[in-house]
Amino acid sequence: MRFSRTFLATLLLSPLVPIAARAQDLGIDVGAKAPAVSVQSLDGKQVSLGNYIGKTPMLIEFWATWCPNCKELMPTLLDAEKKFGKQVKFVAIAVAINQSPEKVRRWLAAHPLPHDTFYDVEGKAAGAFDAPATSYVVVLDKTGKVVYTGLGGKQDLEGAIRKAL
Which of 79, 124, 132, 138 could bridge 10 with an S-S bond, Cβ 3.0-4.6 Å? Predict the structure, then answer.
């Protein structure tokens, strides 16, 4: 498993980053075209994010089963998905740090989510999106352009999604 030093350092230090600095200051540049990298379905099949990017607005969250910020963000994420799920594709990408596809499957069995969840086996998606840590959210417009990035358990996902619509 290869992960960027930035990702690992921020993963460890993200609780120390002030909340105001977490949105729009880290990760892939707003305005950039989203990379069509491959991830893995939880049954081991390769899936290209390019199958989704550029077809509809999209919200991508990099998360982990053990992440406290992800747990804090989950109600906001689920509320946004209820409100915008017919207009926006929601995708979760489980990072491969201290978890496995089996661990993610068990977690999802106990906590079902309405959106697709993939596994970032070698950290290629995290690297391509320059994901600084878990609870990292990227919102894309229908052309595949990044309109929002944010980090942490408290994010204005509804406002971020409105930028994509």
Answer: 132
Segment 65-71 shows an average pLDDT of 94
Domains of the chain with bracketed CATH: 5-164 (3.40.30.10)
**Phi-psi map region of 53: left, alpha, beta (phi>0 left; psi -120 to 50 alpha):** beta
Phi, psi of 42 (to 5 degrees): -70, -10
CB 50 within 8 A of CB 164: no
CA angle centred on 143, ends 139 and 149, rounded to 5°:
20
How does pLDDT run across 4-33, given as a tens digit for each residue? 444 444 444 444 444 443 455 679 999 999
Distance of CA 110 to the CA centre of its chain: 20
